[in-house]
Amino acid sequence: xxxxxxxAVRNLGILAHVDAGKTTLTERVLFATGSTYKxxxxxxxxxxxxxxxxxxxxxxxxxxxxxSCTWDxxxxxxxxxxxxxxxxxxxxxxxxxxxxxVAVFDGVxxxxxxxxxxxxxxDRHGVPRIAFVNKLDRAGADLDRAVESLRTRLxxxxxxxxxxxxxxxxxxxxxxxxxxxALTWDPDLVEGPVPETLLAEAQRRRRLLEETVAELHxxxxxxxxxxxxxxxxxxxxxxxxxxxxxxxxxxxCGSAYRNRGVEPLLDAVIAxxxxxxxxxxxxxxxGEERQADPDAPFSALVFKVNATATGRLTYVRVYSGxxxxxETVLVGGRxxxxxxxxxxxxxRHTAVDTxxxxxxxxxxxxxxxxxxxTLCAPAAPLLLEPPVSAxxxxxxx
Length: 397
Ligand code: GDP
Fold this sequence. Notes:
Largest sheet: 9 strands, mixed
Bound molecules: guanosine-5'-diphosphate
Shape: globular
Structural class: alpha+beta
């Protein structure tokens, strides 16, 4: 099996107001990455991340689940986050184990009250984000207006890296302003030169992007003044740095429903959002730090426990060291043997022998684990969160 290095991992969350299209987008991401063979639809209840019947019934994502997929040689662990404000504790928990997020907005409504509160939570956790303005195919969708609401309501500096091609029903693609190439979906992705009719507008917007980036990034500023423009490489690096330090927000657009914009979004996730080694080391409650290093002592945090047909699944984010099948670790201070370790994909579980720092897996059959429990090597005890009394195990049929 091919090993994936730590800097090729993205622990990603999709944050959204209910109805912005998170479920549809998640499903399209899993489809685009080849993790699903059949395209599920929200309305027929077959969407792959919604595997809890209660969730299907209510049409909202209640329980966080993590799903692994692969894009361009990178492992993307998609951590589901509840969009409903009533479940904001769950949002907090999942934010803790993310390294980056895609915030999804409705292209008609723009920033809505719940998107504001989730955005603030992500700010508190220091989660780097990119924005995806969805539903551009809808009547009344307006990318510029949605972008303006990001500026005025979220107080971020939007960095729009795409120009949409066609509006509403005729929304067919985007101009990638970083590469100055046109991407259209027909229905699959086709790349080509920027159409003549859009060239002047694309150049104007590229210029605007460069100016905004130069205001936020020293190297870009220097190059902009020295050469009057930015190379693609500097632009890309600056967008990555700006995303990671949170001084601005890269904005992409599309229509999840029409399956437009998903591949460039995944490319942006890889290009701009951090890997586990790009984020600060995790801290124990006593202030001790653990680097995302396979050679460090093992530590992990439980962020979800689900009772499933496969058994009791304990979802963990490994922060340091390596978790081996069959070894004994401390689970909330109690010694327990690690049985099966599963990588959870959209439509299947794959048993693995180890999980390395930065990874997200499910451990089968742990007895003492609760959401918030720390797992650690017996020789190097660590507590990542203060002990919790108890929380219910969620039943998933
Ligand atoms: P969630 O609540 O954020 O998970 O949103 P869903 O993915 O369940 O989407 C809410 C509704 O919006 C569903 O009826 C979707 O079919 C619809 N929807 C999602 N994405 C798009 C889109 O890009 N365009 C249009 N027109 N509808 C969409």
